[in-house]
Design a protein that fits this description.
The structure is a single chain. This protein is mainly alpha-helical. Among the domains are: about 90 residues, no CATH class; about 220 residues, Orthogonal Bundle (MetI-like fold), CATH 1.10.3720. The protein is built from 15 helices and two strands. A two-stranded antiparallel ribbon has the order 1-2. The radius of gyration is 37 Å and the shape is flat. The protein starts with about 30 loop residues before the first strand and ends in a 12-residue tail after the last helix.
């Protein structure tokens, strides 16, 4: 055997026929024989390697478990684990007596529920399935906990303020002549509703354009200055709200003499909201696929047209979410408004002069009162504030909640009309380029 022969495994002699010559394939019993090589100098044939056949696994192929279907076994496991956890925790709280408090009861019940559920699922499923089920129930239970907390806040606020919410004067009057002991049929929160809308409107008018422009700058113009701006924005995101109010109080009110007004409160809220909108919009723009912008550049579009017609429409839903986050932050602020707009019980709509009331400040002031009717008015003002936030959320989602490429009926009609005008222009251009043949007998130029 020469050096050119490959090192192989010798097959059983029964698998090699006697007439096999050099380079001839041989088939062995129970497998396929592959020629490994031969010597180049007329020596004996090279040994063969037999590859065993792969046999199919017995039984039917495994079928994947449908993830979107709730089976009866899953429901029984969840209910059984929940009942067992609640019963065990109740036994610990009532019989052992070492624990107390509703928060501890809920936490211990949840931990026991996860343990019991894992034990029930492990009786009928394999290890990977158990881990999948336990992780799914942990994530979904935490999501349900968040929803329940939100529902509790809304229901509790409504219940405490329901006595004031069902009176029409609560939405059409102010508190200029309302005493603490007056009935709920007298006085309302109209001045706080209008003041909140004016202040938030001023803040959004300042923060939205500057925040979105700053986010586009950070995304489209990378460099040292962009990194510096991003660092400042991240630092301002954690800025305490009272510092923004103190800054506006020291500049607009003390230095420029503007006085307590809705304008000063709106500027203070804009300082608080601007970094939130900028940071959230920057994150959203970074999620736009790079292939879209590259395709726009490849088609000859400039950077401005790419940002206007590709990047911003693609990230429209995320940008609307960024605006919602900023508006929710501004509409619930109390300290900046107290330092810059003051407080009043009168209906006031001039944002450039005079104190102006807001719903968060009014809710805090009335809820801290020892009089039951004032407390009811305070919780009613807080519920109205929740309704305003929900209304702003719905408006923002209606404006920017459509996905990329989804047009309204009016936009579709305008798009069709623009396409028809473009087609007519192309046809006229093509007709002008057609050369008309000269008439017979005319001189050729």
């Amino acid at each position: 055997m020469t050096d050119t022969e490959r090192v192989t495994t010798q097959a059983p002699s029964a698998s090699l026929p006697a007439t096999a010559g050099p380079g001839a394939p041989a088939s062995g019993a129970g497998g396929t024989t592959v020629v490994a090589g031969t010597a180049g100098t007329g020596t004996s044939p090279a040994p063969r390697t037999t590859v065993p056949r792969r046999t199919a696994r017995p039984g039917p192929p495994p079928t994947p478990r449908p993830l979107g279907v709730l089976r009866a076994g899953d429901l029984l496991a969840v209910v059984g684990a929940l009942v067992a956890a609640a019963s065990t925790t109740a036994l610990l709280w009532t019989q052992v007596g070492l624990f107390s408090g509703i928060v501890g009861y809920v936490v211990v019940t949840w931990c026991l529920f996860v343990g019991f559920y894992a034990a029930l699922v492990s009786m009928a499923e394999s290890g990977p399935t158990v881990r999948d089920r336990v992780s799914a129930v942990v994530v979904q239970s935490l999501g349900a906990l968040v929803v329940m907390v939100l529902a509790f806040v809304i229901i509790y606020t409504f219940w405490r303020g329901k006595n004031a919410l069902f009176h029409l004067n609560f939405y059409t009057q102010d508190l200029r002549v309302t005493a603490p002991l007056d009935p709920l049929t007298k006085g309302g929160v109209l001045h706080a509703i209008v003041g909140t809308l004016i202040e938030v409107g001023i803040a959004m008018a300042i923060a939205i354009p500057f925040g979105l422009l700053a986010a586009v700058f950070l995304h489209e113009v990378p460099g040292p200055f962009a990194r510096f701006v991003r660092t400042v924005v991240n630092a301002m995101t954690a800025l305490p709200d009272v510092l923004a109010g103190l800054f506006i109080y020291a500049t607009l009110i003390l230095i420029f003499g503007l006085g307590f007004s809705g304008m000063a409160a709106g500027v203070a809220l804009a300082v608080t909201t601007l970094p939130i909108i900028c940071r959230a919009a920057d994150v959203v723009l970074s999620l736009v696929p790079g292939g879209l912008t590259e395709a726009s550049f490849a088609l000859g579009s400039g950077q401005w047209n790419t940002v206007r017609f590709v990047t911003l429409p693609t990230a429209r839903s995320g940008l609307a979410t960024a605006v919602i986050l900023g508006a929710a932050r501004a509409i619930g602020e109390t300290a900046p408004v107290l330092l810059t707009a003051g407080a009043t019980t009168f209906f006031h709509v001039n944002p450039t002069s005079g104190p102006m009331m807001s719903l968060p400040l009014l809710a805090y002031t009335l809820a801290s009162s020892p009089f039951p009717n004032m407390v009811a008015r305070g919780f009613g003002a807080a519920f109205v504030l929740l309704v305003l936030v929900l209304g702003l959320f719905l408006i923002a989602r209606a404006i920017g909640g459509r996905g990329p490429g989804q047009l309204t009926a009016g936009q579709q009609r305008r798009r069709v009309a623009r396409s028809r005008r473009d087609l007519a222009r192309y046809e006229r251009r093509a007709m002008t380029r057609v050369q008309i043949p000269p008439a017979p007998g005319s001189p050729v130029r």
